[in-house]
Amino acid sequence: MTDDRTTENKVKRRLTTVLCADAFGYSRLMEADEAGTLETLRRYRTAIAGLVERHDGRIVNTWGDAVIAEFASVVEAVQCAVEIQQEISSQASNPPDTPSMRFRIGINLGDVMVDGTDIFGDGVNIAARLQELAEPGGVVISASVYDQVRNKLSVGFDCLGQRPMKNVAPVTSYRVTMDGRAAQGHSSAVDGSLAPQGDAVAASETDARRIQDRHEPSTWMDFVSDRLASLPRPVVAALTVSGFLILINLFTGMHKIWFHWPVAVILFGVILRTALGHRPASGRRERRADRE
Description:
52% helix; 20% strand; 12 helices; Alpha-Beta Plaits; eight-stranded mixed β-sheet; alpha+beta; 2 domains
């Protein structure tokens, strides 16, 4: 009898993806306009519930201005979060006289305890703390979520490192950057199709900007350095020696100018060597054959 009772009371656990969202500045909005804020919250909750259902998720709990949902798929959870923010942004001015409300969203993949239809534990707590790290209108995910979605979504990710979180051990978190093409327009949110490109798109664009920066000198020193690098090595050596001779003449006194003679000899020698080095190969072979 004791064994049966122990089995019945055993806590059930499962690995799941938890999405936590709340309205930023909810108390301030309620103080300014209770009726308008409540109406806006209801409208947004309806939109959130529809998107969660579309992505095979489940609303676990709602209290105050918060929404807790869980998903079997990590990718679907992040897609849903992106589309929630897009949907709320598109409704921000509809109707225009309602209070402006923006949500923060945190997502975590972790172990949770199950009690009927509710879930508890660190898996949920971490998602709630990540939501607090998010900017209004933003999404922050844990490293466990990032590892699963980084190459499967057309959004970027900025690593936030390990941020201290209340009553939870620090975890590495990432901010989802929704400025890519697939995350800009409302059409992407409607059909739910986010191209499987991942943060490789953002990385490639960053690399391209770095390459462009390297080839666009920002100062006169960079300009001179690039020009010298494009010249033949003997020419660079001659110019360097000539420059030192000119500086020596300047610092030892300009009452007697002597640098022009050694500089002229150096430059003449370089020009002569360059000219001889570019003689036609056939002519050199013919003269070698005549000597033989």
